[in-house]
Design goal:
With 190 residues, the chain is mainly α. Helix content is 53%, strand content 4%. Strands 1-2 form a two-stranded antiparallel sheet. The longest helix is centred in the N-terminal third of the chain and has 15 residues. It starts with a helix and ends in a 5-residue tail after the last strand.
């Protein structure tokens, strides 16, 4: 509320703020986005509890830096918390890449937390788009040295490619590990 007052906006309580936002949206003809049918029915990639990953030959090794992220993750912290709780803070995307490295090495700290990785994995529609982009760019997800840049560019264009790197990384890791690609209905709001 103080922030709004400092910005010169006056309102009475939460109801007043809601009315102010509604009036602004109407003035600028902004309508709530409707969920597309695809988004509403998208399926989340899940890893069967019976799946036991094996290390991928040639995968980057679990370094001291990766181990620090893994230790925090295995203590129950989410990716964002791991990023800020480390001795030296790093980006959440870097923590995700540490988790991928650990998975490729079948490190028990990540294997024992497979269920917590589900929110990071691509959805069914994202997997379909990644597969199409891999084909369009003649990229091989089984190649550990595959450049993800052309695939990300194919998926998101110059402005949106950064949003795809993590999903590509997870997908290619799972392909390299011959992981079962099962899909389950996404939880509401997720």
């Amino acid at each position: 509320q103080k922030l709004c007052v400092d910005a010169g906006m006056r309102f009475e309580g939460v109801g007043g703020l809601a009315a102010l936002i509604t009036a602004w949206r109407e003035e600028h003809d902004i309508r709530p986005a409707e969920k597309s049918e695809a988004a509403a029915t998208d399926m989340r990639l899940s890893l069967p509890t019976s799946w036991r990953p094996r290390p991928v030959p040639g995968a980057a090794k679990v370094s001291k830096t990766v181990a620090e992220s893994l230790d925090l993750f295995s203590q129950g912290h989410d990716v964002a918390a791991v990023a800020i709780k480390r001795e030296k803070q790093i980006a959440a995307a870097t923590v995700e890449s540490h988790l991928v490295t650990a998975l490729l090495n079948a490190d028990p700290r990540v294997v024992n937390n497979l269920g917590r990785l589900v929110e990071l994995l691509p959805t069914k529609s994202e997997v379909e788009r990644i597969r199409a982009a891999l084909t369009a760019t003649s990229s091989d997800p089984n190649d550990p040295k595959m450049a993800s840049g052309p695939v990300a560019l194919e998926l998101g264009g110059e402005d949106g490619k950064s949003a795809w790197y993590s999903k590509i990384r997870w997908y290619t890791a799972l392909v390299q590990m011959s992981a079962p690609m099962d899909f389950a209905a996404a939880a509401p709001g997720g």
